[in-house]
Amino acid sequence: MVGETEIGELRPGRRWMIASAVGVAGLMGLSIVVDEAVNERDDIVLSHSEVIDGGAGGSVWRGALTNLAADGCRDLMVEMRFLDRNGRLLGELRRRAAALGVGRRFDLEAALPSGAVDLQIYALRWRSGDASIELGPFRPRELGRLPA
Question: Average pLDDT of 72-98?
Fold first, then answer.
């Protein structure tokens, strides 16, 4: 039995792939760990984040992701989470874009759940060339504040 599993980021800036092969009747096992640098971490960044009055007593979060990579990307998917003071999930934002060119912005907007104080980019996925990139979850940030 031969299998391959990507287990995402185990430590910042590294992507790990574990491939394992099990010999006949499970008598012999072999595991190989391949460590690749994740150069894509700063390719798509949160470049705008603000909370505005949405009227009728509600607030709206507006933000934008910008492609800072050398190449455009396609099949972009972003999942963001709105959290309370204790880190509990209050709401989510999921958006897709077919393509995002170099230097282009992907504008985002969502009604802000009552009690939300933090924003977390939970997942970013896109394709670039032959590669499929998946990053996240990122550390939660105060709403309206850009990452340093």
Answer: 96
DSSP state letter for 138: P
DSSP string, 11-46: BTTEEEEEEEEE-GGGS-EEEEEEEEE-GGGGTEEE
What is the model's pLDDT at position 115?
Answer: 93
In angstroms, the CA 42 to CA 36 distance is 16
**Under CATH, what is the fold of the domain 40-142?**
Immunoglobulin-like (2.60.40)
Amino acid at 141: R
- pTM, two decimals, is 0.70
Contact between 106 and 93 under an 8 Å Cβ cutoff? The reply is: no
Q: What are the extents of the domains in the chain?
A: 2-37, 40-142
List Cβ neighbours of 42 (8 Å cut-off, separation of 6 or more): 68
Burial of 66 (0-12, 13-18, 19+ CB in 10 A): middle
CB 67, CB 103: distance < 8 Å: yes
